User: What shape does this take?
Amino acid sequence: MTKTKIRIGNWFRTVEGENLEIVAYDPEEGVIEVQFYDGTVEEYDLDDWEELEAKPIAPPEDWAGSYDVSSDDYGVDLDRPAGDAHLNPLYKLDEEE
Assistant: This one.
């Protein structure tokens, strides 16, 4: 098996189909820390990493999965776009005073 270059920020997929990102690497200690797409953080030594048989992949388009972020965290209501709150001042021209 050819060794894949280990770099922080690289994404991989395990043989079980789980996506993970390398978040820390200490070559002197031979330790790799990864974060799975669901947010779980694990630490592997180089031998355990090789046993994972993880293959490099492109970063997922929805990167927020590992950070457990939703639109509620930003106060966004996707059913009511922000433009609905705007009142057009021209609507009041036809009103009688």
In short: The mean pLDDT is 78. The helical segments are 46-52. DSSP finds one helix and five strands in the chain.
